[in-house]
Amino acid sequence: xxxxxxxxxxxxxxxxxxxxxxxxxxxxxxxxxxxxxxxxxxxxxxxxxxxxxxxxxxxxxxxxxxxxxxxxxxxxxxxxxxxxxxxxxxxxxxxxxxxxxxxxxxxxxxxxxxxxxxxxxxxxxxxxxxxxxxxxxxxxxxxxxxxxxxxxxxxxxxxxxxxxxxxxxxxxxxxxxxxxxxxxxxxxxxxxxxxxxxxxxxxxxxxxxxxxxxxxxxxxxxxxxxxxxxxxxxxxxxxxxxxxxxxxxxxxxxxxxxxxxxxxxxxxxxxxxxxxx
Length: 277
Description:
Structural class: alpha/beta
Keywords: Dioxygenase, Metal-binding, Oxidoreductase, Zinc
Organism: Pontibacter flavimaris
Number of domains: 1
Helix content: 25-40%
CATH architecture: 3-Layer(aba) Sandwich
Shape: globular
Largest sheet: 6 strands, mixed
Radius of gyration: 18 Å
Family: Belongs to the DODA-type extradiol aromatic ring-opening dioxygenase family.
Cofactor: Zn(2+)
Order of helices and strands: HEHEEEHHEHEEHHEHHHHEEEE
Protein name: 4,5-DOPA dioxygenase extradiol
CATH superfamily: LigB-like
Strand order of the largest sheet: 6-2-8-1-12-9
């Protein structure tokens, strides 16, 4: 665990650094990615080396839904094992990254469209730690989570994200964590080990999502229900899609768009991830 002495360097006010941190949407997939060494996790490791080391990471995860908006504000968030039926090795993982009450307060102060509550009970769910432990294995970067208000519309989430833009200027990496295509009821469980297997409808809508992202047509992505049957199959419930809207809401006018881990898994899931910047 990071020592209290080392932690003190995380408590100073954030300063603008003259550059913009990129913004990420991470297809996090199975919790097993938290302990596996595969093509997806290897890319997460490479990515961390390719971008500036952040002063903190703020994650919007599909796995923290709340009534109202909350942000973790403890010194050391706990590791949450919010899943079942997996090997004990996965439950044994403790990712002991620090948090930052100060950065939590600064983040909350930027949000004018909602009252953001300081949270001392949540921690880091698997949408956060299974990815970040590969990126920053020494757990030496503060990690915070911002919840998703499940009572609000897609447009609300997109607009709220825009209010966080200034964090990019201050060295904070903002990360949405979910999956563009996420239909667990239709998973071909016998093909989960095939990292290139997607149903026709899943590949089609995933390609549509990418085209809209590449061309900046965020309005159509916000109104995803209007994209037809394939979109409704891809997003039977919205929690894994909402983090993408947070990422897109943070796009700047000069940001490049790139995709990685662009593969389907189990027929009805895609790992497709996005970097803006």
